[in-house]
């Protein structure tokens, strides 16, 4: 039996707005971020999608986003947290090295890229394996969503080269210990 995972990035935060590196450190959603989450939530109601179970990263920005998307009870999961950028946390984004980051942050107390990808991928695999419900929403972070996409790129035809925007939703099918990316839902926030 296949299950559906909707993996979603949180709404815009103050640090996103200020171009600050935000991994394990946190900042609150902006008004725009809250409105983005509401619009993303409308995607589910407009398409008559019932979320059976919900999970969130332990970061406040992800929890707050999820609470604006659905009023369903949810479980906070540390494995869904963003990349740990070590001492670069809360510093300006211009200090980031060029992509791909690889193991750059390890020397500064952060995570290596493959270590991070493995953490997020194992967390979502365990969740979906144990989950008895059909339709799951997990709210996480930009790099976390991207690394999970990369982990399953070999099974998926869908891709997006541009950065994953705030409240972007990745729709995965899960069956036989395998994920396939079926759709990337980007919302129109031009009115915000």
Automatic annotation (TrEMBL):
<feature type="binding site">
    <location>
        <begin position="9"/>
        <end position="16"/>
    </location>
    <ligand>
        <name>substrate</name>
    </ligand>
</feature>
<dbReference type="GO" id="GO:0005737">
    <property type="term" value="C:cytoplasm"/>
</dbReference>
<protein>
    <submittedName>
        <fullName>Putative phosphoglycerate mutase</fullName>
    </submittedName>
</protein>
<dbReference type="GO" id="GO:0016791">
    <property type="term" value="F:phosphatase activity"/>
</dbReference>
<dbReference type="Pfam" id="PF00300">
    <property type="entry name" value="His_Phos_1"/>
</dbReference>
<dbReference type="InterPro" id="IPR013078">
    <property type="entry name" value="His_Pase_superF_clade-1"/>
</dbReference>
<dbReference type="InterPro" id="IPR001345">
    <property type="entry name" value="PG/BPGM_mutase_AS"/>
</dbReference>
<feature type="binding site">
    <location>
        <position position="61"/>
    </location>
    <ligand>
        <name>substrate</name>
    </ligand>
</feature>
<dbReference type="InterPro" id="IPR029033">
    <property type="entry name" value="His_PPase_superfam"/>
</dbReference>
<dbReference type="InterPro" id="IPR050275">
    <property type="entry name" value="PGM_Phosphatase"/>
</dbReference>
